[in-house]
Amino acid sequence: MAAPVKKRTVNENSNFNGNDGKSESSDESSENGYMEEYINQEIIQVDFEGRNPVDADFHGIKQLLQQLFLKAHINLSELADLIIGQNYVGSVVKQSEVDSEDGDDDSDVNDVFGVTSVLNITEKQNLECVQQLRSLLLELCSEHATDQANTLIRSLLSDDSQSIGLLINERIVNIPAQISVPLLESLSKEIKRACEKKMPYDFTYFILICKLYRSEKPQTKKKKKKKQQQSGGGDEPEVVWSNLEEEIINQEADCQFEFCVKGDSDSGLVGHWMEDDVEMSPYRRVLLLKANKLDPLIERIKTSLSQQ
């Protein structure tokens, strides 16, 4: 069932070739590909790599899907199985294997830190999880989208000649956005190879569900005046994207809509707030974009993130 494991060192200077998902290593800096985590004032350097999803990744993938869909009525177990079952397209992010004398870190090596994949929600609509996802999208766009966006999304989902791919771009908090570049590049190449083999990955549109946070309006006039003075007097709420690269994708979306998920349990920027803090409320933004925009967007993401 599972294809041979593909190992790809994930860092912002990685070059993925088109053969079996192998990566070309870069020796420019020993620091490339490392995420610095601050735990008890210690800096921990972690090297990540992309691999084929396998059965052992089920719970890690499901947990990542849970942080995206929260309490939505979707069979996430079936969705995770679907991602694993089509492991010739898509990757999971794992800690690179390292030689360890004590061997106590095996569980960390097997943890799933991210997943990047695409699911054909037109061809797979006979599955319960895809039916639930399509129903959820129709319900949400009817409630939150503009009339124009609602009409477009409904027409695409009702037309089986339009192949719609659900882009999944999830990772745990604090992994730098630079990791998205090699993952998206690899996904694009895998989609092309699948199309060459006449597999159902010739998409016309992608749908991407993004996580973002908006600052809440101050509760009192006094606080509002103070915060407006600090921010230059603007009324526009601050927006924080969980995955920075998705802000760039948002700029090229053919249509979009968003909704608040504050009533659901969430992680990340949601939690306990000090009196002077600006509370951030979690939202989801649904993007619809033409599939032929993916490669140019990856180049834009690469350029933008390299300047940060």
From TrEMBL:
Family to which the UniProt record says this protein belongs: Belongs to the BCP1 family.
Organism: Cryptotermes secundus
Lineage of producing organism: Eukaryota, Metazoa, Ecdysozoa, Arthropoda, Hexapoda
Any one annotated GO CC term: nucleus
Renumbered residue ranges of the record's region Disordered: 1-32
A UniProt-annotated Pfam family: BCCIP
Compositionally skewed regions (Polar residues) per UniProt: 11-20
Protein name: Protein BCCIP homolog
